[in-house]
Structures are given as structure tokens and as C-alpha cells.
Design goal:
This protein is an alpha+beta fold and about 150 residues long. The chain has three helices and seven strands, in the order αβββββαββα.
């Protein structure tokens, strides 16, 4: 009798990892902090005995920036900062990774592609990023007209 495919396996499929690296010290991958991303998500895994994993959907990334200090340039690494609309991880620092300029460009392009595919506009992300108008009434009534101020 043929075994039925497990339904959980159907949802646990992993996409192909496009890039992976570790946080580096003096240019060497001596850390237990691992970074990777595929076409949809960015993954962070930290720890040796206690492992903590986190992921960010790339369409929720609001801004991608890169910085390279003098020391990082000497060792050929850089830091990429992802500002996101994620509640648990609003800012993710991808610290001291090799070939950071190429990774920065790839991430920026994938984020843009994901946002276009999901039809996510910047203005839709303001509420998710903590933008609050402070409850200020802008003078518009509920019937589409403007209140007398």
C-alpha cells in the first residue's frame, strides 16, 4: 500500500539559498552567527548551545543600507542594515560579511522585486513601521467633505 505524502512536508519545502555567510572577526568566519537569504526571506541564526533563529520576509524590508569602516575595508567585509516593517525585528544588522557590496546590491534588487510582485507600496508600510499620526483629526468628515476648522 502506497504511503500518503505528509501534509506538513508539503508546507515545509525550503527555497534554494542564494547566499550565506557568517559574521566575521578579522575577516575570518569565527562566529556562530549565520546569515542567509533566498528569493523570499532573510534568515538569521545565532548561537552554539542555544540556537535562536529568525527570518524576515523580504517584501517587508523598507530600507537597505551598507557601511564599511576602515577596519572592515582592510579585511574585505562590511555591514548591511535592513530596516523592516517587522514588529519583532525592526532593524537587522548583518555584520561583517564578506563581499558586502555585492550582497547589498543583490538584496536591494530582490527586495524591490518582491515588493513589486506583492504590489506593496511604501505608503502601505507606514503603519507597519510604527508611523502614527498621533490621532490628529485632519479635518475630513466621514462623508468625504472637509469640516469647518
Amino acid at each position: 500500500m502506497a504511503k500518503k505524502p505528509d501534509r506538513l512536508t508539503q508546507f515545509a519545502q525550503e527555497d534554494e539559498i542564494l547566499w550565506h555567510d557568517r559574521k566575521r572577526y578579522l575577516g575570518l568566519p569565527l562566529s556562530f552567527t549565520r546569515y542567509s537569504f533566498d528569493e523570499n526571506r532573510f534568515y538569521l541564526k545565532k548561537g552554539f548551545l542555544n540556537i535562536v533563529s529568525d527570518e524576515i520576509l523580504l517584501y517587508r524590508v523598507l530600507d537597505v543600507t551598507m557601511s564599511r569602516t576602515l577596519g572592515q575595508r582592510l579585511f574585505g567585509v562590511g555591514t548591511i542594515v535592513l530596516t523592516t516593517a517587522d514588529q519583532t525585528l525592526p532593524v537587522m544588522r548583518v555584520e561583517s560579511v564578506k563581499d558586502s557590496e555585492r550582497v547589498y546590491r543583490a538584496l536591494s534588487n530582490i527586495v524591490e522585486k518582491e515588493r513589486n510582485e506583492k504590489r506593496v507600496l511604501g505608503k502601505e508600510m507606514f503603519g507597519a513601521a510604527g508611523f502614527d499620526d498621533g490621532g490628529v483629526d485632519m479635518g475630513v468628515d466621514h462623508f468625504g467633505g472637509i469640516d469647518n476648522l
